[in-house]
Specification:
- 30% of the residues lie in helices and 24% in strands.
- By secondary structure, the chain is of the alpha+beta class.
- The protein has one domain: 5'-Nucleotidase, C-terminal domain (5'-nucleotidase,  domain 2, Alpha-Beta Complex), CATH 3.90.780.10.
- The strands form two sheets. Strands 3-1-7-2-8 form a five-stranded mixed sheet. A four-stranded mixed sheet has the order 6-5-4-9.
């Protein structure tokens, strides 16, 4: 699996597994589940070749000590996030989202298959580095709430891969148009 722009197999794989593992571990204070995941392209440092996967390989992909964090964002802050993804020339790892970009501007957003509603709050799982405004993600700096999941992203990758392997499943990812360009 390789990372790519605007969307890559590795981007999707890592964002999907972070959302899934965070969903399993996260116990929301307010009962609202996580809506989506946003990570950064630069956070994925190596591709995932075919064949056996070792812990050393996972460390190559994700060498950072980043923790998973759930932020509650207002609809306005979520809109800024979607604009950031639409403007980016990098393939942001996202899960739970479909973002349409038109000439570097935001065109359309679906969250878990539903239209974006600027009047509601959304929960995003991301890294503590990004939650602190890393990679110019300033929209994360004033969340309505911040909750630690209690696991490093790298450990989530290892947990997911071990769980899938133990159940006899092959690791799978697909390109499904999460980030697309509109005419």
């Amino acid at each position: 699996m390789r990372k790519a722009s605007p969307e890559g197999l590795l981007n999707n794989f890592i964002a999907d597994l972070v959302l899934e593992v965070a969903d399993d571990l996260y116990k929301p204070e307010d009962g609202q589940e996580i809506d989506f995941c946003l990570l950064n392209y630069g956070g994925l440092r190596a591709n995932l070749p075919e064949g056996p996967i070792t812990r050393a390989r996972v460390f190559e992909i994700m060498p950072f000590e980043n923790e998973m964090v759930v932020l509650t964002l207002s609809g306005d802050k979520a809109y800024e996030l979607f604009e950031y993804v639409a403007r980016s020339d990098k393939g942001m790892p996202i899960s739970g989202l479909k973002i349409g970009a038109r000439n570097g501007s935001l065109g359309h957003v679906l969250i878990q298959g539903k239209e974006f509603d600027r009047l509601r709050n959304y929960k995003v799982v991301t890294s503590d580095y990004l939650a602190e405004g890393g990679d110019r993600m300033r929209f994360f700096l004033d969340p309505l709430n911040t909750e630690m999941v209690g696991m490093r992203i790298r450990d989530a990758i290892i947990l997911f891969m071990e769980r899938e392997t133990a159940s006899g499943k092959e690791l799978f990812s697909e390109l499904d148009g999460r980030i697309y360009f509109m005419e």
